[in-house]
Amino acid sequence: LIIYLSFKSMLCNYWRLQIFHLKYLSVQTGKRIVLFFDDAAHIGRETSLSTFFDIFRTLSSDTISCKAAIYPGVTEFGVRFDVFNDATVVDIVRTPEQSGFRELFSEILHIRYPQFTSDRISGFSLDEFAVFVANAVLGNMRGFVFLCNAISEYNDSGTKIGLPALGTTLLRLAADYYWPLLEEVKPKLGKYTPAVETAREIAEVLFRECATVEECSSVLVHRKIVARYSRPFEILEYVGFIARREASRAMRSGGRGTRYAVNLCNLLEVTTGARLTKAIFEKWSNNDFTFAELHEKGEQFKNIAVPIPIEGAELGILSEPIDILKKSKAYPYGLTELKIDRLKAVGIECVGDLADASDEELLSIESVGEVFVDRFRSAVAQAIWM
């Protein structure tokens, strides 16, 4: 018996009262209960995780199994929870080296995008196309879908999809999706908000250095630099600019570093000619990486300040006007103008107001039933949690 729950529901005292009932349900059904908690740990959400993992540990038994999605490196487990003794850690990052990587994205392309047929592409097969797109966005499923959607829009014109169309779409995604994503995540980081601007500066350095190496797809960063700017690097991983491929690798210039793959959308922006060539396509399709190096004594990070967290800072997203929840590319499950107007009419002016509103208050609004209460909750969750 599998139950999907939100992180917020785990923190309610309700769960302390229901442990017995869950165990009773398991015995009565003769089935083990598996609880899946999504978004249990994000950047900037460390304050309540001690309580979360305390309850997580208490719930786990021979009849109840708890599983939580977390971001390693940004998770504080508290003093009672030992991640290696009290849980089994499974890395679910998708990398080209993993078995089934190519097959997974090829299958998704065939099922979700039946309009992509062999006669609509030029210069490569559908499977090669799927693997290239997956590698270009570092195996990030959201990025894969966004890129395929953008290419699908291009294909609506009836023009065949070849390298020029792919290159144009990659550049458009860099400008319209990746760079704006840093601004979208900024008000959701609380005390780590200052790290976003540092992350932007670091991203520019990484892509610029990669562009100096022919057909480069990775950058090897000295471990001391990674340690110094740990939070900005985590933010860049979070938004899909980079993906850690090796934790420790010997550097030609001495010492050891972390190897990060970089997404091709942003890299192509600073590549000479900003053009997708056959050589680049084949390199990325075959995961044949070459890398640039950033050493500790280099000049690239000399003028990049280490961000200082703002202790006690509230999430900026909560004070944003309710209008930002309008359905858009940033909020595909957002609200209609009519529903936003009705929220404003009862004094709900900002995201925080909606987050604090009770079900009873929302149900009292004209033409709002339980379905729309759920929609309101989902819109707020999307705004806060990405």
Order of helix and strand elements from N to C terminus: EHHEHEHHHHHEHHEEHHEHHHH
Mean pLDDT: 85
Give the low-confidence spans. none
Can you tell me the number of structural domains? 4
Question: Which class best fits the helix and strand makeup?
Answer: alpha/beta
Which strand order spans the largest sheet, edge to edge or round the barrel? 5-6-4-7
Amino-to-carboxy terminus distance: 28 Å
User: Into which percent range does the helicity of residues fall?
Assistant: 40-55%
Outline:
The chain is an alpha/beta fold. Helix content is 45%, strand content 11%. The chain folds into 4 domains: 2-68, no CATH class; 101-171; 186-294, no CATH class; 316-385, DNA polymerase, domain 1 (Orthogonal Bundle), CATH 1.10.150.20.
Question: What do these coordinates show?
Answer:
The chain is an alpha/beta fold. The chain has 4 domains: 2-68, no CATH class; 101-171; 186-294, no CATH class; 316-385, Orthogonal Bundle (DNA polymerase, domain 1), CATH 1.10.150. It contains 16 helices and 7 strands. Strands 5-6-4-7 form a 4-stranded mixed sheet. A 3-stranded parallel sheet has the order 1-2-3. Strand 5 and strand 6 (256-262) form a beta hairpin. The chain is globular. The mean pLDDT is 85.
Break the fold down into its secondary structure elements and pairings.
Blueprint: E1 2-6, H1 7-10, H2 14-29, E2 33-38, H3 49-59, E3 64-68, H4 101-112, H5 126-136, H6 141-155, H7 163-185, H8 195-210, E4 218-222, H9 223-228, H10 230-238, E5 242-250, E6 256-262, H11 264-270, H12 278-285, E7 291-294, H13 337-345, H14 351-356, H15 359-363, H16 370-385
Parallel strand pairs: 1-2, 2-3, 4-7
Antiparallel strand pairs: 4-6, 5-6
